[in-house]
Amino acid sequence: MNREVVYPGTFDPVTNGHLDIIKRALQMFDQITVAVVDKPGKNLLFTTRERIEMLQATAGKLSNVKIERFEGLLVDYLQKRNIFVILRGLRAVSDFEYEFQIALMNRKLYSNIESVFLMPSQEYTYLSSSLIKEVVRLGGKVEGLVPGVVEEALNKKFALTK
Ligand code: COA
Prior knowledge:
The protein is of the alpha/beta class. It is built from 6 helices and 5 strands, in the order E-H-E-H-E-H-E-H-E-H-H. It has helices spanning 16-25, 48-56, 74-81, 93-109, 129-137, 148-161, and strands at residues 4-9, 31-37, 65-70, 85-89, 114-118. Strand 1, helix 1 and strand 2 (31-37) form a beta-alpha-beta unit. It binds coenzyme A.
């Protein structure tokens, strides 16, 4: 049986925490599709194309990892692809309530769906894309927390928007 999973998110931008989750999941699944939401209900720094390019330059280099864009309901996307498992990272107890709501709503919308949660390495449990953006915007260093290409892209974005 080919075990496939979809790892959905905004990835604005991808961090080493997300990559850690993907690498862990590769030990459990044969194929991971990182699904980048096209129009999330939050303000973004990077365009969908930029977010996908950064993922392609990092996670996309790993075998059995594909990067795709999706819009609309996540469950509709899974149904079309004939995939039944959603992967999410759980960083702290504070993530639990939100993830619990999403997982149950997705199951309500499409009863065949299962959600699988993995914990990132402890060094990434406090990471979020918003924090990374704030630190770079204010001139701080994020080395070791995001891939080099992401650090460069962030520096460029904030230098341009200053
Ligand atoms: N390392 C670092 N950061 C992590 C992380 C990890 N391992 N796991 C989560 N995060 C952070 C993200 O960086 C992000 O931070 P930010 O809010 O500062 O940007 C935050 O946790 C959560 O973002 P993300 O994982 O991208 O999820 P999301 O909440 O933005 O999007 C979707 C979740 C895309 C899965 C959801 O919105 C969705 O399914 N949308 C489609 C529409 C739909 O079906 N809606 C109904 C859902 S029930």
